[in-house]
Amino acid sequence: MTSPVSSGGTSGTPIRDVLGKSTQPEKTPGNSLGQDAFLKLLVAQLRYQDPTSPSDGAQFLAQTAQFTQVEKLNELAKSQASMLSAQTMLSASNMVGRTVTYTDSEGVTATGKVVSASVNGTNPSVKIGDVNVPLSSITTVHA
Fold first, then answer.
1. What domain of life is recorded for the organism (predicted)?
2. What backbone torsions phi and psi does residue 71 show, to the nearest 5 degrees?
3. Could you give all domains of the chain from N- to C-terminal order, each with its CATH number?
4. Helical H runs in 11-113?
5. Are 83 and 99 in contact (CB under 8 A)?
6. Mean confidence (pLDDT) of the chain
7. Distance between CA atoms of 110 and 108, rounded to whole angstroms?
8. Banded model confidence at residue 138, pLDDT cuts 50, 70, 90
């Protein structure tokens, strides 16, 4: 049998035929292969291996374990980001009705009562009077 990746000759099956053209792996930033592409490559590698010199099974298990570990770490990172977003919204909403001291965009220290809180993406802010103040600009929360 030939390798699934040919070296430019006519013999061998090109990897694009083995993987199929209709399903493209979902790419994420900093990640060149998705889960589907990894599994398809693993199956293709098993299907087209040379029976006279089979690949080491421990190597496949190690690759699968590493892939599973990376997948779980990605899920954990998404969960952590979600929890951080909820925590920042909670922090901002706990300031409603309280008097705070903050530094405005010109670097002047001001004090005012928080009337509302909001989160735009990952940037929480509170409204003091008619001014939106980023949560990171608040220096003191008064009782």
1. Bacteria
2. -60, -45
3. 15-88 (no CATH), 90-141 (2.30.30)
4. 15-19, 35-47, 57-93
5. no
6. 76
7. 6
8. very high
Tell me whether strands 109-120 and 131-134 are parallel, antiparallel or unpaired. unpaired
What would the DSSP string read from start to end of 111-139?
A: EEEEEEEEEETTEEEEEETTEEEEGGGEE
The two structure tokens encoding residue 2: 């030939």
In order of 113, 129, 131, the CA distances from 134 in angstroms are 14, 14, 10
Q: Are 136 and 129 spatial neighbours (Cβ–Cβ below 8 Å)?
A: no
84-124 pLDDT, tens digit each: 888 888 888 889 999 999 998 888 999 999 999 988 877 88
Residue at token pair 């000759």: 9
What letter represents residue 112's amino acid? G
